[in-house]
Amino acid sequence: MPLHVLVLGGTTEARRLAECLVAGDGPARVRVTSSLAGRVASPRLPPGETRVGGFGGADGMAEWLRAHRVDAVIDATHPFAGTISFNAASAAAAVHVPLLALRRPGWVPSDGDRWHMTDSLAGAAELLPGLGRRVFLTTGRMGLAAFAELDPLWFLMRSVDAPEAPYPARMEILLDRGPFSLDGERELVRRYGVDVLVTKDSGGHATAPKLTAAREAGIPVVVVRRPPAPDGVPVAGTPEEAVAWLRGLVGQRA
């Protein structure tokens, strides 16, 4: 029987992992099922089998793992997905299935960065009036209500899909999907007169150029810290490390 791997995905790393496994770069005889949350209207589907939608909490995920005879789970969700990671930890423990978290490293400030750290979007909203008036908001379309009352400020909001109200009254929406180039980010800062950037600590390279553009322009950056992750779950930083982990599982089963 092939090793059935459930990849909780939606990230660049999850797609790369699925591509590696389907192409045969990982252990032999692997069946890959990628699970997507369904929050993006037109997601980039990875190779292999896919499912879209929630599981119905930790108990629902545990039942799905049993019913589909999953041998390993790799949680490659976004660092800010939050609840799904805790559900995965509970479900995997309940059915005794090995679990690995594939987490891209967080960003680290460089010389010249003017970062202001906070734990939430609400905290970011509190900081903004003292930092600038023209805000480049790159935290996604969820949670914009935190900024809805900041009427004196103007926002450039970038996301894959259009947001739903409530959101700031003075806001221009830019629908786009990464990866983004440094030249492109420089041009956005210049064209819109951006004087403060708001981002989550998503990590990775696809959206990092905005941080360099902000540093070069000398503008402050409000960075929302990552939420807590489940304890006791092994972590891989790259898809290649996740593939090596799967090879180790296959070796244990042999």
Please, could you describe this protein's structure?
With 254 residues, this protein is of the alpha/beta class. The protein has 7 helices and 12 strands. The protein has helices at 12-22, 57-67, 83-95, 121-127, 182-192, 209-217, 239-253, and strands at 3-8, 30-36, 49-52, 72-75, 99-102, 115-118, 134-138, 154-159, 171-175, 196-200, 221-224, 235-236. The strands form 2 sheets. It has a 6-stranded parallel sheet with strand order 3-2-1-4-5-12, sandwiched between helices. A 6-stranded parallel sheet has the order 6-11-10-7-8-9, with helices on both faces. Helix 1 crosses helix 7 (239-253), helix 2 crosses helix 3 (83-95) and helix 5 (182-192) crosses helix 6. The longest helix has 15 residues, at 239-253. The protein is elongated, with a radius of gyration of 20 Å. The model has no long low-confidence stretch (mean pLDDT 92).
Beta-strand residue fraction = 15-25%
Q: Please report the number of helical segments.
A: 7
Q: Any idea what the radius of gyration is? A: 20 Å
What percentage of residues falls in helices of 4 or more residues?
25-40%
What is the H/E string? EHEEHEHEEHEEEHEHEEH
Strand order, main sheet: write it out: 3-2-1-4-5-12
Class by alpha and beta content: alpha/beta
**Main sheet: strands, sense, barrel:** 6 strands, parallel
Instruction: Note the gap between the termini.
Output: 12 Å
How many strands appear in the DSSP assignment?
Answer: 12
Dominant shape: elongated
**Mean pLDDT figure:** 92
